[in-house]
Amino acid sequence: MRLWPSPFLEPRGFPDISERAQPSYPLASRAGVEERLSRILFSAATVLLSVLFSSHTKGTQKERPAAPVQPIPFSHRTHARLGLACLTCHVMPEPGWDMTYPEEAKCMDCHGTIKTESPAILKLAEYYKGRKRVPWVQIYKVPDYVLFSHKAHYRAAMIACEACHGPVAERDVIVEEKSTAMAACVDCHHEKGAPVRCNYCHNPNP
Ligand code: HEC
Ligand code: HEC
Ligand code: HEC
Ligand code: HEC
Ligand code: HEC
Q1: Which of 59, 74, 121, 176 is 20 to 30 A (C-alpha) from 50?
Q2: Per residue in 174-184, pLDDT tens?
Q3: What is the DSSP letter of 144?
Q4: Ligand 3: which residues within 6 Å by Cβ?
């Protein structure tokens, strides 16, 4: 029984009666035509599948890239509901390049008494007592040859954190949901009439 002409198993050189009785294929045997057709369909299906698959993975990565495992499961949503402003924890020390991560003492202001039995808070307290920084995994990062100042954007240009980091206060887990690629910087610079000349962002002496 033949369900589909196989490009690999097709017997060659033994045309059956039905093939000889086909007048419309005087030179190519019907088996040969079917063979080529099934090869073409086979490779077309492979290409289609791989295109579909790769665009699917790209699409999901764009929406929510995988979150790195943080040493302590800190939730911005939980803490934003307490009315804590971003700059309570991200203090933007002078000269304002970085926002930095909060001092463990800041966390312990509350967690000295709140949820002290929770395994996550016990771990936090251990870092604090050992005078060690919690090794948070940095999510938003640009290479060293790029100049980026938080102060210039947040204070001078008055751009909200959310414009570059998404709705952080609604997130339990932070992922890179906004691009830090060159195109993203340049797009906004065009939009706001900020300079786009190369050495505006590229440090000539990194
Ligand atoms: C203003 C007080 C306050 C500060 C400051 C604070 N937290 Fe919290 N945190 C809370 C409250 C309130 C909860 C919710 C407790 C609950 O679920 O009932 C909480 C919950 C948590 C939890 C979840 C604990 C669990 O097991 O449910 C973690 C982890 C946590 N905080 C870590 C931190 C870290 C890390 C910092 C410093 C970067 C920090 N917190 C700063 C008040 C605070
Ligand atoms: C209670 C302290 C606290 C408050 C308040 C807080 N954050 Fe954070 N934030 C953290 C901690 C701790 C981390 C590191 C863990 C993580 O990535 O979730 C962090 C990480 C981040 C990151 C990821 C940085 C990176 O690239 O690694 C962004 C962006 C951020 N916070 C923005 C905000 C914004 C915007 C607000 C105000 C809506 C805010 N945070 C309020 C403690 C805080
Ligand atoms: C114009 C876009 C933009 C705005 C506005 C912005 N950020 Fe960032 N943020 C970035 C970029 C780009 C990086 C990566 C910087 C690097 O690698 O030096 C970053 C990194 C961070 C980091 C981790 C590294 C660090 O700086 O310590 C934190 C935390 C952070 N941002 C929090 C905030 C908070 C909180 C606000 C608002 C007060 C804010 N950002 C506003 C673009 C922005
Ligand atoms: C949401 C809009 C926006 C985004 C995104 C953005 N910028 Fe800007 N940037 C501005 C504006 C507005 C200014 C202020 C221009 C002025 O002072 O006239 C500025 C200023 C700057 C400056 C000058 C700082 C100074 O000291 O005066 C640099 C450098 C810069 N941006 C680099 C970057 C880089 C690198 C990125 C991407 C990682 C980026 N920007 C993303 C809007 C943006
Ligand atoms: C508004 C800021 C900004 C401006 C203006 C800008 N760049 Fe960039 N550029 C970036 C950022 C941010 C990156 C790093 C992107 C990343 O994370 O890989 C980058 C990366 C690059 C890279 C490395 C690309 C790679 O794939 O490794 C080159 C090359 C480059 N830029 C050239 C230029 C040239 C040439 C100009 C002028 C026509 C220019 N840039 C203007 C922000 C800028």
Answers
A1: 176
A2: 999 999 999 99
A3: T
A4: 86, 90, 98-100, 138, 140-142, 148, 150, 153-154, 159, 161, 163-165, 180
By alpha-carbon position, which residue is closest to atom 33 of ligand 5?
A: 198
Task: Decide whether any atom of ligand 4 lies within 6 Å of the 186 Cβ.
Answer: no
Cα–Cα dist 4/21, whole Å: 20
Give the distance, in angstroms, between the CA of residue 177 and the centroid of all CA atoms in the same chain: 7
pLDDT tens per residue across span 129-158? 999 999 999 999 999 999 999 999 999 999
Q: Is 202 helix (H, G, I), strand (E, B) or coil?
A: strand
**pLDDT value for 206:** 59
Residue whose tokens read 């100049």: 147
Find tokens 């059956």 and name the residue.
16
CATH T-level assignment (fold) for domain 81-98+138-206: Cytochrome C3 (3.90.10)
Give the residues of the chain that fall short of pLDDT 70: 1-64, 206
| Domains in the chain: boundaries | 17-63, 81-98+138-206
Give pLDDT, residue 205.
Answer: 72
